[in-house]
Amino acid sequence: MNFRNARARQPEIVRSIQKDDRYTKELAGDISDLLRLAGRRNWIKYNQLCQLIAEISYHGFASLNNLQTLGEEYTGIIQIDSQYRNIPSKLLQLAAIILEFGGEALYLKTLQILEKCIKDNDEIVPEAKNKLIAIVQAMSSSPAFIKALHKSWFYLRCNKYQLSKRITGINYVLIRHWLQPHFSLYGYKILGIITFVQVSLSLASILYDIWGQHKRKQLQSLHISKGSLQNEKVIEEKDDLSRPKCTLCLEPRINTTLTPCGHLFCWNCLLDWLDERDQCPLCREYLKKSNLIQLRNL
């Protein structure tokens, strides 16, 4: 039997994920409380892993036992394979769970190892080495933009909300699709357009900053080659004034840090903010320290 006509829509998928996210946060809090029994030092060292353990345990238990998650049961949806015919295999579901909650960390760790190998390789020409390192560092900031663009595509096309589901081909279908009310989904399409525009503007801003920094370096090199020390000082002063400012401290950004929602702050300013509340200072989206990306050469 083909279930293509019973595909879940944006409202059911979003509500299901939000419900599961609520339960995993509660489970992570319970695990964190248990970890306190091991001592304050161990709690500080391993507390960031509580959320990951909670997410893998919660979704893994449901997959291994062929059960719906509480969120899927709440909205009446189930997972199905890419052909809309059968329940996905346990191996495929576990692969989707690992990709969803650990894929980004594995990706960034791989890039760190690759960057270290490039730096330690003396056979690579210095100019080529610098370019390769710049490419790797740019790739390390790509997950946030890829996920945001993918979310925009979901709002527009009613497809897969999670990138892991797209990679593994897992879909969602409604159990009793004939009982679901029919209503307009144009609000989600508008949200998809807004999300796409926001990501595009954030990316354009970063590219503009990189281009400006490159032009300033070229100008500095030109003045240095002419031996004009006085002009070099003027350029440095202009550089400080033209540097993008952090919206938290209102000073030029130091150790520019990117949030998954596409906003830029000083590294220390953002960490101090997250010590008080777990949301982005600008858009109030849920945010945790492990999701921050420190940009290099910005």
TrEMBL record:
One of its GO terms (molecular function) is zinc ion binding. It comes from the Eukaryota. Residues 246-284 form the RING-type domain. GO terms for cellular component: peroxisomal membrane. The chain crosses the membrane at residues 190-211. Pathway: Protein modification; protein ubiquitination. It is found in: Peroxisome membrane. InterPro entries: PEX2/10, Pex_N, Znf_RING, Znf_RING/FYVE/PHD, Znf_RING_CS. Keywords: Membrane, Metal-binding, Peroxisome, Peroxisome biogenesis, Protein transport, Transferase, Transmembrane, Transmembrane helix, Transport, Ubl conjugation pathway, Zinc, Zinc-finger. It catalyses: S-ubiquitinyl-[E2 ubiquitin-conjugating enzyme]-L-cysteine + [acceptor protein]-L-lysine = [E2 ubiquitin-conjugating enzyme]-L-cysteine + N(6)-ubiquitinyl-[acceptor protein]-L-lysine. Belongs to the pex2/pex10/pex12 family. This is RING-type E3 ubiquitin transferase. It comes from Glossina fuscipes.
